[in-house]
Amino acid sequence: MLYDVKLKDDCIGKYKIYIYRLTRPVDRGIINSMEVLGDTEVFTNFPKPYFNIKSDYILIKGVIGNERIDVTYYEGYSKEKVLLENTLEKIT
Q: DSSP of 47-59, one letter per residue?
């Protein structure tokens, strides 16, 4: 899957926040593909269902049905950024 990525302007300290715009809305298949990146939580009992994927180096969050995901990378994150972007590129 194609995506656009932009570094959020107001990052603080050691954290880097990137906004990924996907070419299609996030669905359960996309979330399942990203589960290799960390512990996954899906919250479907809200007006806008959302998800989080967390590890020691990354936090991915987004709204199901939306094309945007926000990704916070913590210090020492370079491997996780490559893994996420490779994972996104493999999604059809």
A: SS-EEEEE-SSEE
For residue 18, the cross-strand partners are 7, 71
Assess contact for 27 and 33: CB atoms under 8 A. Answer: no
The residues, any chain, with a CB within 8 Å of residue 22's CB and separated by 6 or more, are: 1, 2, 3, 30, 67, 68, 69, 88
Q: What is the DSSP letter of 38?
A: S
| C-alpha Rg value of the chain to the nearest Å | 12
Q: What is the DSSP letter of 64?
A: T
Tell me whether residue 22 is in a domain. yes
Q: Find out whether 91 and 31 touch, Cβ atoms under 8 Å.
A: no
Counting the structural domains of the chain, the total is 1
- Whether 91 is covered by a domain: the verdict is no
**pLDDT tens column, 33-84:** 999 999 999 999 999 999 999 999 999 999 999 999 999 998 877 889 999 9
